[in-house]
Structure formats: C-alpha cells, structure tokens
Amino acid sequence: IPYEKVETRILKAQHKTEEFKKINPLGQVPVLQDGEHYFRESHAILKYLHSTRNCPDHWYPSDPIKRARVDELLDWHHCFLRQGAGNTVFKTLFGPKIGMKFSEGEIEWHKTILSYSLHMLDSKFLGNHKFLLSDELTIADLSIFCELTSLGFLSMDFSEYPNIKTWYSAIDSIEEVSKVCKPVKKFIKMFNDQLK
C-alpha cells in the first residue's frame, strides 16, 4: 500500500503539541490520514486499510469465523500483551527519561502480565501453524509482531519461548517487514547502546 510516512518524535513530545492534537486529541501515535479523514489506533487503521484497499483476504478474512479469530487475537493483544510489554518498556525506560516515576510494585505487575502473555502466546496461540491462525499472515500477526519488536528495548531474545522465536523469525525474514522494521531496530540498538 503506497503511503507517505511522517515521523513524530515521542521523546521530544511532538505528539503532545497543539498542532498534533488537532490530528489526534488524545496525543497518541499512530495516526493515519486518508484524504480529509484521520484514523487512530493501530488495529482500527489496519482494518480500515484492509477494507479500503485491494488487500488479499488472508490479512483480515471475509469469512465471519476466521475474521472473529483475528479480532480475538487483536483484542487479546491490547488487553494482555500490550499491558505487559508496552507498560514494562515505558515504565522502566522511557517514563524515567522524561521525569516520570513508577513504583517497583507497579513495574513488577506489568512484568508479570508480560511473562503471562508470552507464555500464553507461545503455548496456546503458536505451534499449530506457521503463523498465528494459519500458514498465511493476518493483521493480528503484524500487530503482535510489532509489539514483540518493542521488547528489543529490554534485550529479550525469546529463547524461553521456542514457538515465539520460530514465528518471530518467520515474519522478520519477510523482506517488506524487514524493510519497515529496519529504522525501529536501528533506534532500539542506538538506545540500548547508550544505556551501556
């Protein structure tokens, strides 16, 4: 899908400016602009792109049962994995960089959710197919893959989770995914190198 990327520097709080809040009043990324319309939240953006562009059906199947399975994973992602991964990364690394403080108990709670989520992903959702639901990618695979990529900030290698490791490597080896993730991984490496 052709697009124009506009970077928003979160560590410089560009997402909290009045100009950005005209696009997304919540001051969050990502945001998709399509003509005069703005869309927020990654899952809504993925679903919108699938329904408005000529995308293969496997990404977000038209079959109601298959689509519901994708939606289950997307909801699980935001309810569990995001609560563990996103909050652990933010509260241990980024929040303190901008002066925010969190209790050890709060951080440990998110780490527990992360551990539980990774265990569930590895033992309940992966291992039966090449990808989460079949041998073809869905938007749920992409969404969860991106969340796991952020765990690079914590230097996680998934060695405890063989199904995640195999699945992650399969997606990471896709040329288009690798190209899109290259700047993210470069930033993660730069960030981690500064912590050493």
From TrEMBL:
<dbReference type="GO" id="GO:0016740">
    <property type="term" value="F:transferase activity"/>
</dbReference>
<dbReference type="InterPro" id="IPR043377">
    <property type="entry name" value="GSTT1/2/3"/>
</dbReference>
<dbReference type="InterPro" id="IPR040079">
    <property type="entry name" value="Glutathione_S-Trfase"/>
</dbReference>
<feature type="domain" description="GST N-terminal">
    <location>
        <begin position="1"/>
        <end position="57"/>
    </location>
</feature>
<dbReference type="Pfam" id="PF02798">
    <property type="entry name" value="GST_N"/>
</dbReference>
<dbReference type="InterPro" id="IPR004046">
    <property type="entry name" value="GST_C"/>
</dbReference>
<keyword id="KW-0808">Transferase</keyword>
<comment type="similarity">
    <text>Belongs to the GST superfamily.</text>
</comment>
<dbReference type="InterPro" id="IPR036282">
    <property type="entry name" value="Glutathione-S-Trfase_C_sf"/>
</dbReference>
<dbReference type="InterPro" id="IPR010987">
    <property type="entry name" value="Glutathione-S-Trfase_C-like"/>
</dbReference>
<dbReference type="InterPro" id="IPR004045">
    <property type="entry name" value="Glutathione_S-Trfase_N"/>
</dbReference>
<dbReference type="Pfam" id="PF00043">
    <property type="entry name" value="GST_C"/>
</dbReference>
<feature type="domain" description="GST C-terminal">
    <location>
        <begin position="63"/>
        <end position="191"/>
    </location>
</feature>
<protein>
    <recommendedName>
        <fullName>Glutathione S-transferase</fullName>
    </recommendedName>
</protein>
<dbReference type="InterPro" id="IPR036249">
    <property type="entry name" value="Thioredoxin-like_sf"/>
</dbReference>
